[in-house]
Amino acid sequence: MKSTSLAAATTVVVLAASLAACSAPGGGDDAAASSITIWHNSADSPAVLDLYERFEAETGIAVELVDIPSDAFESTTTTKWATGDRPDILEYHPVKSALLPLNPAANMQDLSDLPFVEKSGDLYPAMGTVDGVVYAAITGFPSIFGVYYNKQVLADAGLEPPTSFEDLQSICDGLAGSGVAPIYESGGSAWPTQILPLLYGSEFNAGDEYGSAVAANERPLTEPDGPFVKGLEAYASLRDNGCFNADATSGTFENAITAVYDGTAALTALHSDVYASFLAAAGDDAALLDETVGFVPVSATEPVVAYAGGPIGTFYAPKTGDAAREAAAIQFIEFATGAGYQDLVDAGPAFPVIDGVTTPDDFSELQLAFKAAYDDGAAVAFNSNIAGFGGFATETTKLLAGQTTPAEAADSMQAQVEQASKAAGLPGW
Hints:
CATH architecture of the largest domain: 3-Layer(aba) Sandwich
InterPro entries: Bact_solute-bd_prot1, SBP
Number of strands: 14
CATH topology of the largest domain: D-Maltodextrin-Binding Protein, domain 2
Number of domains: 2
CATH class of the largest domain: Alpha Beta
Largest sheet: 6 strands, mixed
Helix content: 40-55%
Organism: Antiquaquibacter soli
Keywords: Signal
Number of helices: 20
Signal peptide: 1-23
Protein name: ABC transporter substrate-binding protein
Strand order of the largest sheet: 1-3-2-4-13-7
Distance between the termini: 45 Å
Low-confidence stretches: 2-29
C-alpha cells in the first residue's frame, strides 16, 4: 500500500493525476484489476488504515492511497473532483448536502443491492442516499453532536448537566463571577459555531421531518417561529448574556477541549469524533477522563442529540469507465462491510452500524454516553440533507462576532439553499 504523507500534501494533485490515468476508460476491462486508487482522509484512524492493508492481503489487489488533508478535506476533494479526476474509491461525507454536488446519479455506482444496506437498520436512507438510491457504504458510527461538561466545575457550583437551552442559560447565571467560562465557543475554528444552533432544532427533526420539509421547499428557513430562526436567536442570546469565553471569536476547538478538561470552562458543544483529543488531554487515561468529563444531549427543551455520518470509513465507488477497476471497487466495499468488518470494529474499537458482528468490550463511560444518546431518540442533523448548507459555519461565526443578526443569517442561508437546490434541479424548487 502506498500513501503520500502530510508533509507532501502539496504533491497530492500531481500524484492523483498520475493515479487517475491508470483508471482511464479502456484500461483493463478484460482482466481483473491489479490495483485500486483510494482518495482518503489524512485523519483516517489506524483501524481504517489497517482495513486497506487487510484488503490487499486478502485479495492481492494493491491499494494506492491519495491523502486528502483533513484540514481542507471538503474543499480539496470537491476541487479535485471538479477537474474530472476520479478515484476508484472515494472516502467522503454521507450527508446529502455534501453528496449532491458530486452528481451521484451520473458519477457513482449504485450500492443499493449490496447486503450491508439491509443490515444497517434505519441508517439508510437518512444517510448516503439520493432519490432512493444508496451510494455510500457507511462503516463508522455516526458523529454525535452534544455538550461536553466538566463534572467537578458543575458539582462545585451545585449545578446539574444541561438538557435544554434554558439549562445552558441557568449554568451561565450560576457561574457568573466564578472566573470559569460557562461555555467555550470556538470562533477561530469556525465549524463549531454551527453546533449549538443546530442542536436547538434537534427535537423538531424526528424522522428528518423538519429537514425534509426545508429541502423540499415546504418550509423556509426564515420562518420567524421556526426551529432555525429560534436556534439562531437562542445562540445570540447566550452570546449577549456573556455565556461564552472572552476570546470566543478567536478560540479554537482544541483550546475548548483543554479548557473543559482543565476546568477553565464548564461546557463546550462538539461532536463525538473529538473523543481522542479529550483522551489525549487526560494523558490517554480513559478512567481519568471519565472522572473529569461527561457528555449530554441538549436541544431546545429536551435532551436530544443530533447525529450525522462522518467521512472516516464512509466509502463511495465512483464510475471510472474501467469495468475491472469498478468491479474491484465493489469488491473492496463488500470486504469493508462484510468479511473485514468485524476486524475493523474490533480494531477501533467502535460501535458497529452493520448487523451480524459482535460489539467490542471495554468502552469508556464517555464513549458509552455517545452510544446512549444515539440510542435514546437521536435525530439526524436537520441540515444533513439540505443542499447549499456549506456556508452555515460562516454565518454562525459572523453571528457570534455580532456582524450579522439571526434574521440576516437566516435570509442568507435561505438564499444559499435556494440557489443550490435550483442548480441541482431538486423537486419543489
